[in-house]
From TrEMBL:
Keywords: ATP-binding, Kinase, Nucleotide-binding, Serine/threonine-protein kinase, Transferase
Domain of life: Eukaryota
Protein name (database record): Kinase-like protein
PROSITE patterns recorded: PROTEIN_KINASE_DOM
One Pfam family, short name: Pkinase
Domain Protein kinase span(s) in chain numbering: 25-222
Organism: Rhizoclosmatium globosum
Molecular function in Gene Ontology: ATP binding; protein serine/threonine kinase activity
Gene3D superfamilies xrefs: Phosphorylase Kinase, domain 1, Transferase(Phosphotransferase) domain 1
Length: 222
C-alpha cells in the first residue's frame, strides 16, 4: 500500500536497514493512545536499544484517507538525520497496522516543563530557542516545513538538549509553489495559514516566536 517494509537511504549517508517485524520488538509500555493508533516504548530484541513505535490502524487509514499523510511522514523522516530530531529507524507494516519506529529520547516535553515552572529564565529560553532555531534551519534545508511546532512537540532530553518531534503535519515545500492547507495548532499558527493566502517554510519561525514568548511570560501572546 505504498509504505515500504524497511527504511532506506533517501539521500546519501544512510545504510539500508534490514526488514523487521513487530515480533522483533519487546513492548515495554504504552506512551500515548491516539485517535488512529498507539505510541509505545519498545526494545529492539537484537540490539537491546530502546525505541518508540508508532502504529496506525489500517482500518482507520482506509476510512479516513490517512494513507498520504502516513507516507509523507515516513518520507520526511527518512530524509532527515539530526541530533535535533527523533530519527527514523524503521518503517514497516503488517496485516493490521502501519508502523514507524524512531529513536527514544528520555526526558520531558516543554509543556511539562512549563506546567512545573510556569515560565523559564532568560538564559534557559535563549538556549532552547537557539537549539530549536538550529533544528528549524536544518529541517528547512531539506525543503521541509514542520507546521506544528509547539511545546508539546519539543522534548528536552536528559542532558537538556532540544529534540523536535511529530512530523505528521509536516510537508515538503519549494519557493515557487505556496502551501494552502490550514493545519497546525491554532495558538501557534502564523496568520498566513489562518488567512489561507498561501505560505511557505517561514511559518515555522512564527511558531518559534510564539513559543519563546510563552517560555518567557508563561502564556501565549495575542
Amino acid at each position: 500500500m505504498g509504505i515500504c517494509a524497511s527504511t532506506s537511504s533517501v539521500e546519501g549517508g544512510k545504510e539500508k536497514q534490514p526488514e523487521v517485524r513487530l515480533e522483533d520488538f519487546e513492548i515495554i509500555s504504552t506512551i500515548k493512545k491516539t485517535s488512529h493508533g498507539k505510541i509505545k516504548l519498545v526494545r529492539n530484541k537484537q540490539s537491546d536499544v530502546l525505541l518508540v513505535l508508532k502504529s496506525t490502524q489500517k482500518s482507520l487509514v482506509k476510512r479516513n484517507t490517512l494513507l498520504p499523510i502516513i507516507i509523507q511522514e515516513r518520507n520526511i523522516l527518512a530524509r532527515l538525520q539530526s541530533p535535533f530530531i527523533c530519527n527514523l529507524k524503521y518503517a514497516f507494516q503488517d496485516a493490521e497496522n502501519f508502523y514507524l519506529v524512531v529513536e527514544y529520547k528520555a526526558g520531558r516535553d516543554l509543556r511539562a516543563a512549563l506546567k512545573k515552572q510556569r515560565k523559564l529564565n532568560e538564559e534557559s529560553v535563549a538556549f532552547i530557542a537557539a537549539e530549536v532555531a538550529s533544528a528549524i534551519a536544518y529541517i528547512h534545508s531539506h525543503h521541509i516545513v514542520h507546521r506544528n511546532l509547539r511545546p508539546e512537540n519539543l522534548l528536552l532530553d536528559e542532558d537538556g538538549h532540544v529534540v523536535v518531534t511529530d512530523f505528521r503535519l509536516s510537508s515538503f515545500f519549494n519557493e515557487k509553489n505556496m502551501l494552502y492547507v490550514s493545519v497546525g495548532t491554532l495558538a501557534y499558527m502564523a496568520p498566513e495559514i489562518l488567512q489561507k493566502c498561501g505560505y511557505t517554510h517561514t511559518v515555522d519561525w512564527w511558531s518559534l516566536g510564539v513559543i519563546i514568548y510563552e517560555l518567557l511570560f508563561g502564556k501565549v501572546g495575542h
